[in-house]
């Protein structure tokens, strides 16, 4: 499985003429990254970048082997600092987690496979995925949805960005059984983090030359929680008069993305909505089939889809 992926990617990298890291980063692929607001570190004196690698579970280890082969074939100056972290293979403890966190903080760039949550997990404690996000303050998940030239995608010339706040909301790991047969799951929305993700979205739009930011919400029902998110976005929008600002209810957003995705430019939203919308958007450009779509949780599944289903040419 990894061999097939390796062969495809090595061919791609060689076709780029031995491209360096900055050249690969500019390729029009549909990918996402989790950000904590820090700049990418400069290379070391020997012009080598140091990157933390966590293979994770499932096909993760095979995938990372392919990644290393691709970087080698492209003559990309990267040294991988590898850690094996897994909650389902008895390869995880707080000490090892701290080692991974220290490496990520030092290198400020990491590539990670899926770390599976154990089946017996009851939601009473944060998973290692959540711990990594929170301790590193990886608050912004950025998905660039971009039609890949040369492939028969469902929508051609599509170019939009989904920005998701991923440290609070419904995925706060705050749920419990208050009484027999009754589960309470808390959704946390704060002004501080809502304003921060809104500012990130508007800054992104400004730096990338984009014209519009759309806040996605459900404030018509969750008037306090999503109402606070929407109010925070509106306050930040006033600081960026050159960027058009709109709002849309999550229900309508899903329908509009299917009917006419070209109307959107940059979308910003709370955690759960972003998890749904970025998967929907991936289907618009078939990037899961191409293996080009990735989030912190779904990159492994994208690779599996790529290996099982060839895209229509």
Describe the structure.
The structure is a single chain. By secondary structure, the protein is an alpha/beta fold. 39% of the residues lie in helices and 18% in strands. The protein has a 6-stranded mixed β-sheet with strand order 1-5-6-11-9-10, sandwiched between helices. A 3-stranded parallel β-sheet has the order 3-2-4, with helices on both faces. The protein has a two-stranded antiparallel sheet with strand order 7-8. Helix 6 (191-207) crosses helix 7 (225-237) and helix 8 runs parallel beside helix 9 (271-284). Residues 1-32 and 287-313 have low confidence and may be disordered.
Residues in β-strands, percent: 15-25%
Q: How many beta-strand runs?
A: 11
Secondary structure category:
alpha/beta
Number of helices: 11
N-to-C terminal Cα separation, in Å? Answer: 21 Å
Domain Isopropylmalate dehydrogenase-like: 50-303
Keywords: Tricarboxylic acid cycle
InterPro entries: IsoPropMal-DH-like_dom
Family: Belongs to the isocitrate and isopropylmalate dehydrogenases family.
């Amino acid at each position: 499985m990894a061999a097939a992926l390796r062969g495809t990617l090595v061919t791609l990298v060689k076709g780029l003429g031995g491209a360096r890291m900055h050249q690969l980063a500019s390729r029009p692929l549909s990918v996402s990254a989790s950000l904590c607001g820090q700049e990418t570190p400069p290379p070391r004196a020997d012009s080598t970048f140091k990157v933390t690698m966590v293979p994770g579970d499932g096909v993760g280890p095979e995938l990372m082997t392919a990644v290393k082969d691709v970087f080698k074939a492209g003559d990309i100056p990267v040294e991988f600092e590898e850690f094996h972290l897994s909650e389902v293979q008895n390869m995880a403890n707080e000490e090892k987690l701290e080692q991974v966190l220290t490496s990520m903080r030092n290198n400020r760039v990491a590539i990670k496979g899926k770390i599976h949550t154990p089946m017996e997990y009851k939601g009473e404690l944060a998973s290692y995925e959540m711990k990594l996000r929170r301790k590193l303050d990886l608050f912004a998940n950025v998905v660039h949805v971009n039609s890949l030239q040369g492939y028969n995608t469902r929508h051609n010339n599509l170019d939009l960005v989904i920005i998701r706040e991923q440290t609070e909301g419904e995925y706060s790991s705050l749920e419990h059984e208050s009484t027999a047969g009754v589960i309470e799951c808390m959704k946390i929305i704060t002004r501080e983090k809502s304003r921060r993700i809104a500012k990130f979205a508007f800054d992104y739009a400004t730096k990338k030359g984009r014209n519009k930011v759309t806040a996605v919400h459900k404030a018509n029902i969750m008037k306090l929680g999503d109402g606070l998110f929407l109010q925070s976005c509106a306050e930040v929008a006033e600081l960026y008069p050159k960027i058009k600002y709109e709002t849309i209810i999550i229900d309508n957003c899903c329908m509009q993305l299917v009917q006419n995705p070209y109307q959107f430019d940059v979308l910003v939203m709370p955690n759960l909505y972003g998890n749904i919308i970025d998967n929907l958007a991936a289907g618009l450009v078939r990037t899961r089939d191409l293996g080009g779509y990735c989030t912190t949780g779904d990159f492994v599944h994208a690779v599996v889809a790529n290996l099982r289903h060839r895209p229509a040419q």
